[in-house]
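It is worth pausing here to work through a concrete case rather than discussing structure prediction in the abstract. The textbook approach is simple: state the sequence, then state the predicted structure, then interpret. We follow exactly that order.
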Amino acid sequence: MTIAITGATGQLGRLVVEKLKAQIGADHIIGLVRSKAKAADLGVPTRQADYSQPDTLPAALAGVDTLLLISSNEVGQRIAQHRNVIEAAKQAGVQRIVYTSVLHADTSSLSLADEHLATEALLKESGLEYTLLRNGWYTENHLGSIPGALAGGAFLGSAQEGRISSATREYFAEAAVAALTGEGHAGQTYELAGDESYTLADLAAEVSRQTGKTIPYRDLPAAEYAAALTGFGLPKGLAEAIAGWDVSASQGALFDDSRQLSKLIARPTTPLSKAVADALKQAS
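Step two, the predicted structure:
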């Protein structure tokens, strides 16, 4: 069996490649990348493939049995780009596509959900076998705010008391490997989230406990939070999107207690306390 991974040089893609190599060996893996120069250290055969250049895709997918379609990072372009990959997979004879969607894509208020749901529909209409990995929030999305919170004396957000069932990328990579290599995953949809949920106030309290500093969580109206992020140097569109995701979190969009992730990978996810400890070590 030959497995190909799109976006193989990305943060999630690299983790999947490493875990797949350990399980099935490099000879059965193909990394699909935009830049082969950036993929020199992957340790697996690579092929050039660009979501936005459909002519490059059928040859890149030749001989591939199962494809991990990691969603494009170009929000607003994803539907067209993913359609290109799915059509090329059909032409190349790919048997199954495993797709990284978003948690509760069919009911989520996240602005990201629409493109994921449209891609899910394309897969269902394609005639190919598929597996939908509806990934929850990456813990890293919030751990990356720790240095700024320590410097500024507070965590900022607009999530109110919304609970976030996040997990680190490592666990979502393991879930992808399980779905790519295991039996019985065709036609399945998995809602993937961490075992433990927390509020941003809980995160602030945990960082305070571990650092010995008082770092409160300050909940702001979405417009104020977006303005603060813009003041920190983020582009206005991205700042508004992040604030909007927090609002969705306050409405429950990032919460899930089904524990399908830990069941799929057959081990519990990391508690928030350990994730914070690891992040503080890396920051020091």
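Step three, interpretation. The CA atoms of residues 44 and 107 lie 38 Å apart. The chain has two domains: 3-135, 137-167+193-256+269-284.
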